[in-house]
Amino acid sequence: MWLQLICQTSKEMEPLVSEAAENMGAASITLSDAGDKPVLEPLPNETPLWDEIVITILFREEEKQLIDQLQSQLEANKEHWQISNISQEVLEEQQWERLWMDDFHPMQFGENLWIYPSWSEIPEDESIKIKLDPGLAFGSGTHPTTALCLEWLDQNPPQGKSVIDYGCGSGILAMAAIKLGATHVVATDIDPQALTATKDNQQKNDIAESDIHGCLPKALPKDPVDLMLANILCGPLIELAEELCSLTKSGGKIVLSGILEEQMELLKESYSVHCDDIQFATMEGWVRMAATVR
User: Fold this and answer.
1) What is the DSSP annotation of 39-96?
2) Is 70 exceeded by the pLDDT of residue 121?
3) What is the pLDDT of residue 224?
4) How far is CA 94 from the centre of its chain?
5) If one looks up domain 102-293 in CATH, what number appears?
6) Which helix (DSSP H) or strand (DSSP E) does residue 115 occupy?
7) pTM of the predicted model, to two decimals?
8) 3-state percent helix, strand, coil for the chain, nearest multiple of 5
9) Cα 53 to the chain's mean position, in Å?
């Protein structure tokens, strides 16, 4: 059994509450969003926080006296530390690894593309399969932006084409492109950890080292490719419009995601200067844009 103390505070006051918990010997401190303000794709080494934060502080069952002392301290500083909704809960011991694994199942994208966690039984059939576990780098197929890109790849296999995966994260789109017939993929990301994750996942899927080349954006080869994939965010996509299009051959395809529905027109305006046949698809409030580069 475990005991947890839960309270809500502001971003400015969170360090004071966390420090008090650390000083009392808490086993763990978890921060989560108290409202509905998602943190999207922070830069490397950034730790962005929400304006209002729920802090969950964990103690061992035998440390009841410590958690009570901490609660008293928080109550005494409630007004100064902007604390609200203080409560204690009993948390039963659980098999966390099992629960984590139960959250991830094989996922199908389009007609023929599947993502399998490593612990799943993988059928011997003609479908395209990628083995991928959730990790530190973004991209496991569970987010609509990734799903939209995977569906496009399934419907438009890049057979015999060169590809850039801009903002590769876990390497999921790069691997899907190779599995669907691409001749070579350059996977790039501003986060070196993403390049490491891509390489690891490439090896786990028995994809030849020469098929996917990982690099930071500043080291991108300048030769244009047949297909540009970029699943990042609307702001960077707009800033990179000219560069992404210049890295794509005339007549080549560019597929963008990480866009909210209300950002569609902004993106269309930026890319209509360089592209024709701009088309959008939506899923759960997120958007994919596909276009042909002039």
Assistant:
1) ---PPTT-----SEEEEEEEEEGGGHHHHHHHHHHHHHTTTTTT-EEEEEEEE----H
2) yes
3) 98
4) 26
5) 3.40.50.150
6) strand 113-116
7) 0.78
8) 30, 30, 35
9) 21
pLDDT at position 42 is 65
Domain boundaries, the chain: 2-93, 102-293
- What is the per-residue pLDDT for 93? 75
pLDDT > 70 fraction of the chain, expressed in percent and rounded:
92
- Give Dmax (Cα) for the chain: 69
Q: What's the whole-number average pLDDT of the chain?
A: 92
Rounded (10°) angle between helices 192-204 and 172-179? 40
Helices (DSSP H) in the chain: which residue ranges? 14-23, 64-76, 96-102, 144-155, 172-179, 192-204, 234-239, 241-246, 264-271
Take residue 264 and report the two structure tokens written for it.
Answer: 């569609």
Spell 208-232 as b/e; 16+ CB within 10 A means b: eeebbbbeeeeeeeeebbbbbbbbb
Q: Are 160 and 187 in contact (CB under 8 A)?
A: no
What is the CA 170 to chain-centroid distance, rounded?
A: 8
Tens-digit pLDDT profile for residues 16-64: 999 999 999 999 999 999 987 766 666 667 777 889 999 999 999 999 9
- The CATH code for residues 2-93 is 3.30.70.120
